[in-house]
């Protein structure tokens, strides 16, 4: 009886050990299969940092790529191009000019000059066409395939004004597969973001894609300056944009035509006089971002119209690719704002007045306007790219 009990106990222990081993082996095999699946499923991020499609891991350039769901989420809150600020390491984007004229900084390098003709050390390239004038850099961000940020200097492949780096946008391209989307976001202050795109094949060789965007926000900032009281006078905008593309794909020849336009009707950046507590970084006790004290708020406006087109031709030879990119951009701008942020003048050198002034000390009563009545940009790029087997390849080009 004792031997039987021991045998039974022994069999139970052995069975338990075998079950444990089998379970461990099964778990190990399952984990290994999952691990293999993860390895197989690693997303390959392709970039064009060197003007050829490459795996980002094989590019000897400091590149940060933003694409997929993250890009869609970041750009869906009715914000302008400044949504990239703090989303990409070492990149900062700011503007004292509203939803246009953004200024880019990389690794702390940039140009804070708000002159409309001021060149910047961070370039912006949209669909292979450089956006040289700062006004062109404010084009809305929508229906993109990827955003690439390249640390500088990048003058070898991208020309001047790239010592600090460049930001590169690639729009979603037409394809033979029919696809489309529509999205609507809504937020406070009647802020809305409506975007949609649809595309597909027109013939066996020709495909098209059209993308649209409309962003709105109501004026929500009240003016409380004595004698100039007006509710909901600043802070709003209506920003509309469109992109139309046609892609022809032959055996050894591709042609991509891109037409785009933008129409912005809004208000400039709102200035607040004496909003910082003297000697600190704190806002004054009674600060309210929804209230200003301006004597010219009713005249504040910002009107921007841009239009452009590009034609990219690609010829595939035996071991080389010839690429021609012709671009045209135009812009018109007018912006006016109360830049002293207050009403009247009561500071040093101001003449005595018998009407209210403020808030605080206003040393100079300043309402400024700036504009570009007609800006045109024509670019032409031609390059020869090798497609050789092995480690050696080269590019030559003209711009």
Question: Which helices and strands, and how do they pair?
Answer:
Elements: H1 2-40, E1 46-47, E2 54-55, E3 63-67, H2 68-74, E4 91-94, E5 103-106, E6 122-126, E7 129-130, E8 144-151, H3 155-158, E9 165-171, E10 179-187, E11 191-201, E12 206-217, E13 221-223, E14 230-234, E15 237-249, E16 253-266, E17 291-292, E18 301-316, E19 320-338, E20 367-386, E21 395-398
Account of the protein in words:
By secondary structure, the chain is mainly beta. It folds into two domains: 124 residues, TonB-dependent receptor, plug domain (Ferric Hydroxamate Uptake Protein, Chain A, domain 1, Beta Complex); 223 residues, TonB-dependent receptor, beta-barrel domain (Maltoporin, Chain A). The protein is built from three helices and 21 strands. Strands 10-11-12-15-16-18-19-20-21 form a nine-stranded antiparallel beta sheet, with no helix packed on it. Strands 3-8-9-6-7 form a five-stranded mixed beta sheet. β20 and β21 form a beta hairpin. The chain is elongated. The N terminus is likely disordered.
Helix content: 10-25%
Report the count of strand segments. Answer: 21
Backbone shape:
elongated
Instruction: Record the strand order, biggest sheet.
Output: 10-11-12-15-16-18-19-20-21
Question: Structural class per helix/strand content?
Answer: mainly beta
What's the helix-strand series?
A: HEEEHEEEEEHEEEEEEEEEEEEE
Provide the CATH topology of the largest domain: Maltoporin, Chain A
CATH class of the largest domain: Mainly Beta
